[in-house]
Every structure is written in C-alpha cells, then in structure tokens.
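Thread: quick sanity check before group meeting

JM: Hey all, I'm pulling together slides for Thursday and realized we never actually wrote out the predicted structure for the chain we discussed last week. Dropping the sequence here so it's in one place. If anyone has concerns about the input, flag it before I start.
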Amino acid sequence: MTDTPETKHATLRWLDGMRFEGGEPGGPQVVVDADNATAPGPMLQLLLAAASCAGADVVSILKKMQVGLESLEVRMDGTRRAEHPKRYTAIHYTWTIKGTGLDEAKARRAIDLSMEKYCSVLHSLAPDIATSYDLRLG
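JM (edit): ok, ran it. Output follows.
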C-alpha cells in the first residue's frame, strides 16, 4: 500500500480590525485575532495547534497502553526572536497527566513518540526550533 498525498483546504475571511474567521469550507470556524483581544492570535494559535496535535497523539497512545486517562493539560512556552520575522526559536511543553495505570515511563514514551514521530504540526515547523518538555504526573 502506498501513501497518497492529502490536501487540506481552509478559507480565512476578515471580520473587522485585526480579527479573522476561518476553517475548512463548510466546517466549524475559528476566530483569530492578531491583537489577541477577543481570540488567540496567529502565534498563539500555532502553539495551540502544536499542543492539540501532540495531545491527541498522547491520548491515543496512552489508551493503547491501557491507561485510564483522567486529565491531561499541556502548557506551552514559545520563545520568539526579537527581530522580524518574530518566529519561534524554541518551544517548551509542560505536560500534566493523571490516570490509572499511568507511570512516568508510559507518559514519557507517549510524549516522545508524539514529538519524535507522530505530531504533524510539530514536524511541519522549521527543524531548527528547539523543543523540550517537562512532565508532571497528577
């Protein structure tokens, strides 16, 4: 079986000020506010995309490990350049996970698999962005 390329489609429309709304045509829409006043701005949305992508991986992997997940929270700290383009140079995740049958080895294995192999968003970013994480078991 060979992989076939998948093409995603999105549409973004300007609302007012620095606010935009977008998503897949005909699908759910999100608001992006470049001023971070009424919704997360583009750079925060990027962190949220990376966290939710990795989070979905970790949830799926822990389920396969027979962990009864009770809670999962990911804090992300993105370090940006001072000059333009003010892109991320480092992203640090702080994972807080609680569940029955969960231990540090399982949690770290799930996170490592996501960050090293599965997270499409993280792997779509520039390869020179330093990524790291801390783990707290609840």
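AS: nice. The chain has three helices and six strands. The helical segments are 42-64, 104-118, 120-124.
JM: adding both to the slides.
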